[in-house]
Amino acid sequence: MAFTLPALPYAFNALEPHIDARTMEIHHGKHHNAYVTNLNNAVAGKPEENLSIEEICKNISKYPVAVRNNGGGHYNHSLFWTIMAPSAGGAPTGALADAINSAFGTVDEFKTKFNAAAAGRFGSGWAWLIKDASGKLAITSTPNQDNPLMDVAEVKGTPILGLDVWEHAYYLNYQNRRPDYCAAFWNVVNWSEVAKRFDAK
Ligand code: MN
Q1: For residue 180, how far is its CA from the centre of ligand 1 (angstroms)?
Q2: Which of 1, 54, 167, 185 is the S-S candidate for 171 at Cβ 3.0 to 4.6 Å?
């Protein structure tokens, strides 16, 4: 198989009480797994089965909608698991903190703007913190399983933090209270992983 489901880097219950174990188990084992299976089916026997998921996203307009939906789903969730961690939260430090302060004023102002993007995404989608081609940070959001790497994205850049706002990401614990889920997310953000992504080339 060209693409595989990455192991969750912590236990299903590791992000409790902010994200419950049952949600994590279904989200990783059923939803993400289905994106991987459907992506593999969509690329089987085609040249793109030998490309990285990043390369596929960057040229997504060349591929069928099944690749866009499931390839995006695979990329987005693979990032999402790594930018969370148990006993995380806290605040960004170093060059990342400087860049956030420079772009948004303060870390708290950044969180407010990010949460507004997450809460304001109508229907299913994602909120993102991205680094653009000039190295500057920006907040954006995408519908469905699109992401800012995609050539079809309104605002393009390299995602360094992402929040899944599909109902499957929060409904068991938060029901319709998406803003509460978005607020709780900051307790599990793995800032060292976000910084690693920010520092990468
Ligand atoms: Mn999801």
Answers
A1: 17
A2: 167
